Amino acid sequence: MLKVRIIPLLLLKGASLVKSVGFTDHRVVGDAVSAIKVFSQRFADEMVILDLDAAERGTVNHNLLSRISEFCNMPVAFGGGVNTLEKANILFRSGADKIVVNSVFFTDLDVVRSVINKYGSQSIILSIDVRLGNGDYSVYYNNGNTKLLGKSLIETIELAEQVGVGEILINDIARDGMMNGFDLELLQKARSLVAVPLIIAGGCASKQDFKNAFNLGADAVSAGRVFHWVGESIIGIKIYLNEYFSKWSVR
Question: Is 248 helix (H, G, I), strand (E, B) or coil?
């Protein structure tokens, strides 16, 4: 039976949990450890945690990850500043089940290959940040600040699968924090290209948005603001989805 997942997406600056709009305007919404404790009790399937300051800081936040791992009862994917195999090693030793990579995929692909060779494809998620412009989707990295030149979204996905990335997370920069629903055309385009599990993020605001995403073939939905500002509960979303998708198993 097909499994679909609901994955809270948490953004960190220091030890604070923040929310963003269009990858900017970061506002503190709580303490990271407290928030993760709450999600651990609310039937989330996995957790994606992105440390936004890691690249600038030059270190991975393994101390915080170790604290999280003590009480987190679900798989944790941790990203931010992973630009060497040794930093990946540190995160895995500190409790990460998967790591999320972005910039290093575009600047030093050998690091990604080395992580896959050591830990396996299932250990790595590629986060592809995109923005629609002139009728096409451009790929960005470096927290959405740098536009990828010379390679399209299609070519990026093809390369990711050739390298052996285990999952792909598509994040729509323009819809980040806007709560105006997913770009369903983007989801359909990505689904037609991606053979590995596909996670969609950016714009989720309601149970209907989860339904729409899964109906178009997403393997997982990653969201943040819908849980903090709308107050949707994960168990409530799963009950809602199970009413529509009897052929699916919503964990």
Answer: strand
Given 129, 172, 176, 209, the catalytic residue: 129
> pLDDT tens-digit profile of 207-216?
999 999 999 9
What single-letter amino acid sits at 196?
V
> Could you report the per-residue pLDDT of 29-85, keeping only the tens digit for each?
888 888 888 888 778 899 999 999 888 888 888 888 898 888 888 899 999 999 999
Q: Given the DSSP bridges, would you call strands 146-147 and 167-172 parallel, antiparallel or unpaired? A: unpaired
Q: Where are the beta strands (DSSP E) in the chain?
A: 2-13, 16-21, 24-31, 47-51, 76-79, 98-101, 124-133, 136-141, 146-147, 167-172, 198-201, 220-223, 248-250
129 is a catalytic site residue:
yes
Closest by CA to 217, choosing from 241, 190, 178, is: 190
Within 8 A by CB and 6+ apart from 216, the residues are: 184, 187, 188, 191
Single-letter residue type at 46: E
